[in-house]
Amino acid sequence: MQSDKGFFGRFGGSYIPEILHASQQALLDAWNQARVDVDFLADVDRELQQYSGRPTPLTPCPNLTRELGGAQVFLKREDLNHSGAHKMNNVIGQGLLVKRMGKKRIIAETGAGQHGVASALIAARLGLECTIYMGARDIERQYPNVFWMKQLGATVVPVTSGGQTLRDALDEALRDWSADPSGSHYLLGTACGCAPYPEMVAEFQSVIGREVRAQSLQQFGALPDAIYACVGGGSNAAGIMLPFINDQSVELVGVEAGGRGPAPGDHSIRLSDDLGSPGIAQGFATMFLQDDQGQLMETHSIAAGLDYVGVSPILAHLNDTGRVRMTAANDDEVMHAFLALLRLEGIIPALESSHAVAGALRDIPAMSPDKKVVINISGRGDKDIFNVASAVKDAEFGPFLQRYLARELQA
Ligand SMILES: Cc1ncc(COP(=O)(O)O)c(C=O)c1O
Questions:
Q1: For residue 347, which of 6, 92, 381, 388 sits 20 to 30 Å off, Cα-Cα?
Q2: How close is the Cα of 72 to the center of ligand 1, in Å?
Q3: Residue 372 lies in domain
Q4: Is 230 considered catalytic here?
Q5: Both 66 and 182 in a single domain?
Q6: By C-alpha distance, which of 101, 78, 88, 89 is closest to 31?
Q7: What is the CA angle 261-265-267, rounded to 5?
Q8: Residues 25 and 76 both lie in one domain
Q9: How confident is the model at residue 411 (pLDDT cuts 50, 70, 90)?
Q10: 297-337 pLDDT tens trace
Q11: Whose CA is nearest to atom 13 of ligand 1?
Q12: d(CA 155, CA 105)
């Protein structure tokens, strides 16, 4: 989906400080040339295949299908990308663009840490310096990812302002970019921010939907009847959905983080239930969670990667036009969906992706058995072991950590 001068309906645009205008224009020019350059696109394709392991499979789920007694379930396995999430598709694209622009340093922000790890990996592979901003609260929730970023040679900067989550990390990354606009590239991890980021990130992620299209035709001889994806910033959702945007027979469903419930600060529901309102922040216009004074609100989700106060202008627009149906799943439903996939299909999805599963589990029993549903498994759940261990109240995990710590302190 092409923007109209950076706008998608009433959302998007570019609301940035004067100091960033020149580097934003340079990025825009570089992207506009690269996106139609067959050599660049071939380089991206090669790295997606040889480094990240694409194409990722479309996996049928016979046990889940039998259990639900409705439509047939298929999973798009972005968890099988190198580094365990769809974030890799975008960093490969932007990383190769950075090389093309001749810059030597990347700045990134991260919530769940998946984009941070992916950025650190691509920086190592392409020989770039890398600084990653991460909310101090997210660092606590996703420390294993922080550990890997550091081992990969990245500098991880804890952000202690505001709610200490993704939104605050994004502010700091923008500040860094403003301080060094010509030497550094801001490698934004989702389809948000000023133009051309939403469109560029969505385009790099559209490889997901293009593969689903080809795989569906090959594996069951038709397009899917419905596609479900979780919506944090909106990049995996835009990536799987955009290649189907003109296929009206394919229902597109985005699932936001319902968190602990609908009270302010307990969730990250911007589009469903009209809980967000239009605003301009962090360089672009979209639906934000904000109070009567226009102040951005705190958010919560069991999944750090969905805990964002804004949303892609592309999804906000598709929600406006009715092309995407938005819904939300709360933390309990998400844990139920997570365990269902684990035990019925032997797949450990990220808690973010489990939102998409939860949204689909709600609808599938009412669908007829000849229908096909594709759920995007945007990432794998290894990183969530701490959160899951406490959610399932595993009796052994805490004592194991204590024993481990005691040994480390003795050594
Ligand atoms: C596994 C996974 N899925 C989904 C998301 C949400 O991002 P987006 O909405 O941009 O796909 C994240 C973000 O960190 C993630 O790590």
A1: 92
A2: 25
A3: 55-84+206-390
A4: no
A5: no
A6: 101
A7: 45
A8: no
A9: confident
A10: 999 999 989 989 999 999 999 999 999 999 999 999 999 99
A11: 305
A12: 11
